[in-house]
Amino acid sequence: MITQEMIQNFPTSPGVYLMKTSDGTVIYVGKARNLRNRVRAYVGDTRDSRVHIRFMVQLVQSVDYIVTDTEKEALILENTLIKQHRPKYNINLRDDKTYFSLRMDMKEEFPRLSLVRKIPSDGARYFGPYSSATSAKEVLKQLYKMFPLRHYPLATCMARKRPCLYHQIKQCSAPCCGLITKEEYATLAEGAALFLEGKNTEIARLYRAKMTQASQEMRYEDAARYRDLVRAIEVTVERQKMVAQGGDSDVFGVHREGDQMQIALLHIRGGTVTGGRTFLFDWELETEEGLASFLNEYYDLDAPLPPQVLIPFPIPEPGPLEELLSEKAGKKVIIAAPQRGPKLEMVKLAQKNAETASQERLAKESSSATLLTELAEKLHLARTPRRIECYDISNIQGEMAVGSRVVFIDGKADKNLYRRYRIKGVLQSDDFAMMREVLSRRFKAETTEEQPDLIVVDGGLGQLGVLNAVLDELGVNGVEAAGLAKSRTFRDMESEEISKSDERVFRPGRKNPITLRQSSAPLLLLARIRDEAHRFAVTYHKAVRSKTLTGSSLDQVPGIGAKRKKALLKHFGSLRGVQGATLEELIAAPGMTERAARALWEELQKQKKGV
Questions:
Q1: Helices (H) and strands (E) in the chain — how many of each?
Q2: Which among 230, 267, 313, 368 is most buried, taking Cβ atoms within 10 Å?
Q3: Alpha-carbon gap, residue 102 to 136, rounded angstroms
Q4: Residue 293: how many CB atoms within 10 A of its CB?
């Protein structure tokens, strides 16, 4: 437990503190403007009175600190140490989601919109972010109907002798064939950029002026085109009018249910909501500190940074974080908790999204708990199966055999716990022996991995018998077992009608299977787990088979390494293309010498003859 003696010599400068247990495990990393005052808040009568914080403090046996020159440096160091130690009481954001943006380089001869993941400082204009490639492509699809810009790279366009299909459906103005001048195309490109920036009034003014000018010059077709563009823009804007007023910003909402904090994020670009997402964390300290820690970690993952970040309540010491984010963005970034006006309304909307997401999650958890309880009752399990593991085998007559394990926690797949096994000790086609090897490797390994409540194998009494034998041999206790046998199709000899049996669940100690009501929630869950294990095994088997078959003809040849093999496959298009090549073609291939080509050709001839 933290005592006054621990911190009496702490400095009063900015820095980072690390709370450790008796075995030296870091359970919390925090930053502070004044190290001594911040850590003292956890001690004595002035400490936080909430139970979970008192519980954390009880675990702390020592507190280390690292002094920094500024609070901004403390923020950076805090983030680094959290990633290094993954403390139990910190937010550990592992966000693999990729944002997409639309890019347009106005310096190009005929600017084109393209989909990108990164936003480098290259002078081009970027629009977004969009939460998925699908949503970004949908924006492009609608945009091309209003602004017929080119779809393909400039070199591809200019090599064409006639307009592409997009021109036929009026979604490209065909600059490749000179059907639009550079000036007119530039106007289209600028209109598209303004539209993506939400400057719809400015676009309408620009195109109305162009329409009037074209009409006065008796270019009535051009005037009609500008008129149609203005109408299309007005209709689209009316349809998309879920907006906040002005500018780009990220808006955050927070909803707390005990130790779980739900955060909702809305992306506002050009005054329009372009997308959003939610995050869920276990967090046991102050909500304000949790939001500050989340913002620091989220924007450290190269998330798009707008000039304004709106939050529902002030966070402690926002200045250093604003400075850090401004440095990352290369422009001023403001963190604000609005008290009135349109910005407050957007924060309230984000808050509502966070609350709704939390309610949906709780409803799903309740439904999942009910489902697992029902499954335990139907299968006569001793306890609710929170963790279910399922195993499957895939091979071709014993060749290239592999096994798979999938894990479902509370009725949901946890892909971080999936495992693949290459069968090593079984050389013949024996699924039972292969299953024995996989299960033995799973439970013989010295690991702290949590044991399952229920193991499911794909099959009937035979596979279940193997599973029970392995569990008995290894002394694994407290793990329930079940075999799920697929339904069988059969036909009565005296009838043309085809019948299908029910899927059956086999349990140890029962000769007859348990038949669950078809389409019932427990059976659908077991079938989903079984099918996922089968999919995972087959996918791995295909990868192994592809690698083995692709490599067999080339890897045996002296002088053909990984680099040459890759170049050959790329040059000839496939392994079959390499096998069908003549000696002269092999010699002429990129990266090949006559000696290596001859050795390869001779080896391929031997394989063709079956030598």
A1: 20, 21
A2: 267
A3: 7
A4: 25
